[in-house]
Structure formats: structure tokens, C-alpha cells
Design a protein that fits this description.
heterodimer; A: 11 strands; B: five-stranded mixed beta sheet; 1 helix
Chain lengths: 116, 114
């Protein structure tokens, strides 16, 4: 089945450690996104990419890094520089914006990161 | 990017229509209005989108005002399973970085009551 997969669903790390969250899609989408969601809040854009080997900062990129070496994969690294890393992280993918075509975004089920 | 404004919360009676407003007064001509919803602790789900004409699908209807500065999502017969956070976003239809940036606001928390 086509879809977008995030792993793991739950992740625990010690403070000061870098951690990488996985996001894979087999929908052949060009664009991919990472969001952070805190309890009771909306989604905030961390990074997005519209093509392999290229990505742009979103609204809260500090303390995070990404790579886009393959079209299917867009891993997010939460670095030790991120001051409040505990959150729910969502990955999404979509076709490239192209006029009237529906560029519906598909979301993964999220990774809940807890840093202790 | 155009910004959207939504009420933070609203209640709706089961079986009745739920009308969710969204203001996007700075929307530009090539920007589409998209609606998503997020059920607790899941990834958001696409509902519907439109440019200037009203749209309807199996989930909902989208009414966009003539000046395109606001829209309303209508859930015709709300059920308890429609309890969720509903997000209205605007997105450029043009290729390029701005067209592919997908930004969410705070959304409207809808509670459907029996």
C-alpha cells in the first residue's frame, strides 16, 4: 500500500544526545515536510523539501537538521541545541504545487519524542 | 504566505450541521484554501480544497465568499467521530518554494456532543 511511514512511534533519549527520526514515503511525492506539535497546540513547520538534495527552513528550524538524499526519505535530526525537544513530530509529503491539481498532503502517524 | 484566522473552539450537536468559519483576508489570487482535520494524536487528514467556487465531496462542503477573504467548512450531519481539530490553510498553486510551503495555524477544536 502507498503511504508515509514514521518510525519509531515512541522515542526516549537522554538530554544532550542527538536523535534522528525516520520518515519514508512511497507515494512518489516531490515535497516533504516536518512539523512539531506541542500539547494543545497546532502544527509548526520545521523544515520542508521540494526536491532531492534541497530543503528550506520552516518557522522553527533552530536546533534541527534534515537531509534529502533520496526522494523517498526525509530524516529529521533533533540536535542537542534544541532546548525543548520533547514533542510530537509529524512528517508529511505532497505533490508539488501546480495550479488546479490537488496537492493534498499525506501525514505519517507521528513520533512522540521524550527527552529526559 | 497568507494567514488564516479561526475560532479556537466550537461545539456542535450530533446530527446537526457544523459550520466552521475561516478568515483569510490577505489571500492572493493564486492561493487555494485547504481544510484538514486532526483527530487526537493522529496525523492530519485532508478534507477538501477550493480556489473560488464552492466545492463538495463525501466528507464536507466548502463555501468561499466572492471576495475570497473568508470561507466556511460545512459538515452536513456531524457525528461523534467528527470531534477533532480542524485546520484551514492557504497554499499557493504556483511551483517554487512559496508554493510548497505548507503552514498550519492553531485550528478550531470541534466537539460534537450527543
Amino acid at each position: 500500500d502507498g503511504g508515509i511511514t514514521q518510525s519509531p512511534k515512541y522515542l526516549f533519549r537522554k538530554e544532550g544526545q542527538n536523535v534522528t527520526l525516520s520518515c519514508e514515503q512511497n507515494l512518489n511525492h516531490d515535497a516533504m515536510y516536518w512539523y512539531r506539535q506541542d500539547p494543545g497546540q497546532g502544527l509548526r513547520l520545521i523544515y520542508y523539501s521540494q526536491i532531492v538534495n534541497d530543503f528550506q527552513k520552516g518557522d522553527i528550524a533552530e536546533g534541527y537538521s534534515v537531509s534529502r538524499e533520496k526522494k523517498e526519505s526525509f530524516p529529521l535530526t533533533v540536535t542537542s541545541a534544541q532546548k525543548n525537544p520533547t514533542a510530537f513530530y509529524l512528517c508529511a509529503s505532497s505533490p508539488i504545487a501546480d495550479g488546479a491539481l490537488n496537492t493534498e498532503a499525506f501525514f505519517g502517524q507521528g513520533t512522540r519524542l521524550t527527552v529526559v | 504566505d497568507a494567514k488564516t484566522t479561526q475560532p479556537p473552539s466550537m461545539d456542535c450537536a450530533e446530527g446537526r450541521a457544523a459550520n466552521l468559519p475561516c478568515n483569510h483576508s490577505t489571500i492572493s489570487g493564486n492561493e487555494y484554501v485547504y481544510w484538514y482535520r486532526q483527530i487526537h494524536s493522529q496525523g492530519p487528514q485532508y478534507i477538501i480544497h477550493g480556489l473560488k467556487n464552492n466545492e463538495t465531496n463525501e466528507m464536507a462542503s466548502l463555501i468561499i465568499t466572492e471576495d475570497r477573504k473568508s470561507s466556511t467548512l460545512i459538515l452536513p450531519h456531524a457525528t461523534l467521530r467528527d470531534t477533532a481539530v480542524y485546520y484551514c490553510i492557504v497554499r499557493s498553486g504556483r511551483r517554487g518554494a512559496a508554493g510548497n510551503k505548507l503552514t498550519f495555524g492553531g485550528g478550531t477544536r470541534v466537539l460534537v456532543k450527543p
